[in-house]
Amino acid sequence: MGEMTDAIISEIKLTPLFETAGEEKIDSLYFGGGTPSLLSLSDLDKLIDALRNRFSFADHPEITLEANPDDIDPMKLKDWISRGINRLSVGIQSFDEAELAWMNRAHDARDSIRCIQQIKEAGFTNFSADLIYGSPLMTIDSWQNNLDIVIQENIPHLSCYALTVEPRTALDKMIRLKKKEAVEPDAQAILFGELMMRLGKAGYEHYEISNFARPGMRSRHNSSYWKGTPYYGFGPSAHSYDGSQRRWNLANNALYIQSIQKGIIPFEAEVLTPVQQLNEYIMTALRTIEGIDLERVARQFGTGPEEQLRSSITKWKEGGKLMEEGRKIILTDNGKFFADGIASDLFF
Q: Exposed, middle or buried by CB within 10 Å (0-12, 13-18, 19+), for 317?
């Protein structure tokens, strides 16, 4: 971990600033990917110091740390707060014992409840829980129980993802060998509908397809991605985006460290064409509660794409999956089940 920390700090120092660097201050910082809750306090201090020495931060930035339930205890929580960490993203995944065992998670259901209570007792008012739905073990009753706990514990932010079987993974192989049951998309759709209904009734804002928040508790960091705001990323596999060029680091930890030690950031890059930028905007904006802003499309990409979008959405509006509010194109609740397909259909 020490070597990795030192390499990331070196990358922070080596990275050239965007041309727009002086225009905006850093408003959010996110420690995620891997398990940053395992970092020692000294390594965490070094990373934060390196970032503050390199960049100008806003007065009250959102600073999030990803953590697993089994890594959380009162002392760690106190130490994180003292370092300026003001938001946690906790990989709960499920409050159901059997499901956690099926996922091979290190924590159990009691850890899930315990860590939420400890987070609140430590003084964190802003935190998020990740839940996964749609495993073969999940029933409508067990999913409702998960959501009941979220509501009862008044968790301020929730990210919910349908279980996806990635090719060439252990789960994919076990399903093909009939050692685990296959994932059923129709069952997942029912669970997604239940999710929207129950959290909506409980007062949560469904502000992005997979994300729900109490009023005022949206993730600043995630929202920046969906708005197309430039961002820096540091570490293996990290992505950066300056508004037109995307770059991504080598994924291999050892090779990443070796390269950085030679003073070379190991990355690949691509410059997005105007059409690629427009399609990315369509894909990300459509997933949000604000939807696609036709005024922005016309301003950034021209009136031609705006007119084409207006024409392309007709069938989706007639089918009750899209609606127009002023100059915004927004998914209906029914349309949220088909978000990826609709976005693909609208691409240029």
A: middle
